[in-house]
Write a structure and sequence with these properties.
Blueprint (H helix, E strand, L loop, with lengths): L1 H26 L5 H23 L9
Keywords: Membrane, Transmembrane, Transmembrane helix
Length: 64
C-alpha cells in the first residue's frame, strides 16, 4: 500500500515541479529565477504532501 502512496506523491511532485518551472521560465525575468525557486520550494514540496495525504485511504496509511 505504501507503493500507491509513494507513486501518487511522486506523480504530484513532478507535476507541480513541471508547472512551476514553466511558470517561472515564461513569466519572470532571469534575474529573479533563483530567488523564486528558493521562495517557492516549500510550496512545491507542501502541495504534493497535502494532496497525497488527503487522497490516501485508511489501508494505505495502515490505520485500522
Amino acid at each position: 500500500m505504501l507503493g500507491k502512496f509513494a507513486t501518487r506523491f511522486v506523480g504530484v511532485l513532478f507535476s507541480v515541479l513541471i508547472l512551476t518551472a514553466i511558470v517561472i521560465h515564461f513569466f519572470f525575468s532571469n534575474k529573479l529565477t533563483t530567488d523564486l525557486w528558493i521562495i517557492v520550494m516549500p510550496v512545491i514540496l507542501g502541495i504534493p504532501i497535502l494532496i497525497s495525504v488527503v487522497m490516501a485511504k485508511d489501508d494505505e496509511l495502515s490505520i485500522h
